[in-house]
Amino acid sequence: MIHPIRSLVAGVSMFRESLSMAIANIAANKLRSFLTILGIMIGVTAVIALITTISGVSASISDSFTSMGAGSLTVSTPGSDLKSGLSSADLDDIAALDNVQGVTPSVSLSVKAARNGVTESGLSVSGVNEFYFVNKPDTVESGRAINPIDIEDMSRVCLIGRDVMDSFFYGVNPIGQTIYLNAMRFTVVGILAENTDSSIASILSGSADILMPYTTAMKINGQSLIGGITVYMSDADASDSVKADLEEHLDALFSFEDDTYTITTMDSIESTMDSMLSMMSALLAGIASIALVVGGIGIMNMMLTSVTERTVEIGLKKAIGAEPGQIQIQFLIESFLLSMIGGVTGVVLGLIVSALMCSVMGTTFAISYGAIALGVGFSAAVGIIFGWSPARKASKLSPIDALRRM
């Protein structure tokens, strides 16, 4: 038992000595060591920042779909020659299906607004029903929402956004006031809540300048049928059964003709977005990893230079009994230390950069432990792989040839 213990003690002692000498050599060549570390640090910073930021964007997108109505179905109905869309009665029938909470039609148009000599073209209008406000209770800042009577009577009422209010009602309470849309007189009944959110959720959900009853919007558009709807489910887990019931109902409406409608679930869109972000994350990480390879080449260059400079030192060690393996381990430790210093520093900087980027974009900052493990692991691998050749070269130096240089 004595021999194994002595071997272990000797091994630990040799490791401590090699570690001490590696640290001393790094400290003795501060500028060269810093420039070598810089390549690894930049590579790891890029990898961590990109992957962590994309993870935050992915989390924000998931939140976006939840706020937009996760557990909803979007239906587009190009129709056929016999039936080119959905009627209001069709909407009521769809709303009566099992596990359907409500239906919101999708009617969009662009209008020219005018009031007291002020005109503005290209304002976006969304035609909605009363359920739109049930699904989005924070839409109205003041005034009232559109109600079923407005829908039935095709009332010329509207809710306006903050930008429209500033353009046409500056310094005036717009509620109850008149505005002309495409030369038709409308009464403002509400003000839409200001959207100050610059997050991914806001970008995905979008917003209209003006909301009005969808029946009124259809009249302005000269259309009698609805081209698209959003179906909200009372139970998100019932997505498959609701979709099946909806397909059966739409098949009957469109006489079982092909390509008369498409149904898209938020879950499928979210899954597609996640897949795209994962691919983008892998691509960007691969590009950023090139910097790590460049940093590894820098480590190899420094270690080869170090071997050349320390030829005499290596020869003396071999002359007094140092084994080739001991020499090799010493140089590997030095290469590993350089790489890990750059890697750990890069992880810290990468998280800081990612936090700043997420703050600027308004997305969630979520630490990706997988990215950290990738950065640190890659740094360790770079240190060992690119340090192996110089360390091998040092271990094979002939002590006689080395001592001749003294």
What descriptive keywords fit this protein?
4-stranded antiparallel beta sheet; 60% helix; 6-stranded mixed beta barrel; alpha+beta; 406 residues; elongated
Describe the structure.
- The protein contains 14 helices and 11 strands.
- Strands 3-4-9-6-8-7 form a 6-stranded mixed barrel. It has a 4-stranded antiparallel β-sheet with strand order 2-10-1-11.
- Helix content is 60%, strand content 16%.
- The two termini are 43 Å apart.
Numbering strands along the chain, what is their spatial order in the largest sheet?
3-4-9-6-8-7
Structural class: alpha+beta
Strand content: 15-25%
What is the CA-based Rg, rounded?
34 Å
- Name the overall outline: elongated
Helix content range of the residues, please? 55-70%
Catalogue the unreliable spans.
Answer: 196-205
Q: Figure out the total of helices.
A: 14
Largest β sheet strand count, sense and barrel closure? 6 strands, mixed, barrel
Would you list the SSEs in sequence order as H and E?
HHEHEEEHEHEHEEHEHEHEHHHHH
Number of strands: 11
